[in-house]
Amino acid sequence: MEFGPNNPVVKRCIQGMALSESGSQEDARQLFREAWDDATDDLEKFIAAHFVAHHHDVSADKLTWFEKALHYALAINDDSVRSALPELYAAIALCHDQSGRRDEAARNRKLASQSSIGPVATGPFYHGTKADLRLGDLLTPGGSSNYQPDLKMNHIYFTALAGGAGLAAALAKGDGPERVYVVDPTGEFENDPNVTNKKFPGNPTRSYRSLAPLRVVGEVSDWPGQTPAQLAAWREKLANNKGDIIN
Question: Which of 23, 57, 68, 235 has most Cβ atoms within 10 angstroms of its Cβ?
Fold first, then answer.
């Protein structure tokens, strides 16, 4: 599975989150269980189990579902879920604390601390834009945010999903054609904190950022695109987003 808003399990989880935020907790829990029932691979099961756990009222059942989410996260052993491990271990530790199992709580807190590492992704990486670039060009931090025009970005952003870069290109400013470039980071990079462990656990969009430039090493001409209706929904969502960008 490549994470995306059109995946049926992801769709159910997004709908469940909306219901939860509106106060319809029981309906939200039902959708998360349906997402679990529909899940067919480890990533889908990890995401669904995570939401079932977070929206469970019974402590023992919450622990069971967090442990299921951890099981699938460890089975995937991928950069998309690795950043969720500290949160999962910490949640499991809290469940043990609430049940008086201090040794298990301490063990999981230690695992949470030990699993806090940066991304180890090796690419290929992509950057979406409407700019006309050539091989060898450098993309540097300091540009204006696509989402908050008055904000100068301290980092340059990229992803390991060509479809995600294509969405960024579609949402980027400018009148030029949408372009998705293959890029190489020239320095260290980190998980994008604006998306990692926010709505979804881990970094399923495989989004990163760097203080160092990105070098253009290629271009892709075909990537999973969005329908006009989906793009309109994204633009509306961004226009209504009042959250602060972690810069």
Answer: 68
What's 23's DSSP letter?
T
Q: Judge whether residue 93 has pLDDT over 80.
A: yes
Tokens of 207: 């989004």
Query: Residue 190 forms beta bridges with which residues?
Result: 209
Distance CA 116, CA 208 (A): 16
Q: How far apart are CA 196 and CA 148, in angstroms?
A: 19
- C-alpha span between 102 and 116 (Å, rounded): 22
What integer pLDDT is reported at residue 142 of this predicted model?
80
In eight-state DSSP terms, residue 22 is T
* Distance, CA of 140 to CA of 224 (rounded, Å): 26
Q: Residue 58 CB: number of other CB atoms within 10 A?
A: 9
Residue range 165-201, pLDDT digits in tens: 988 888 877 788 999 999 999 999 999 999 999 889 9
Buried b (16+ CB within 10 A) or exposed e, 91-122: bbbbbbbeeeeeebbeebbebbeebeeebebe
The whole-number pLDDT of residue 232 equals: 67
Tokens of 137: 């060009």
Return the top range by mean pLDDT from 75-84, 100-109, 121-130.
100-109
Domains of the chain with CATH codes: 8-114 (1.25.40.10), 125-240 (3.20.170.40)
Three-state DSSP state, 123? coil
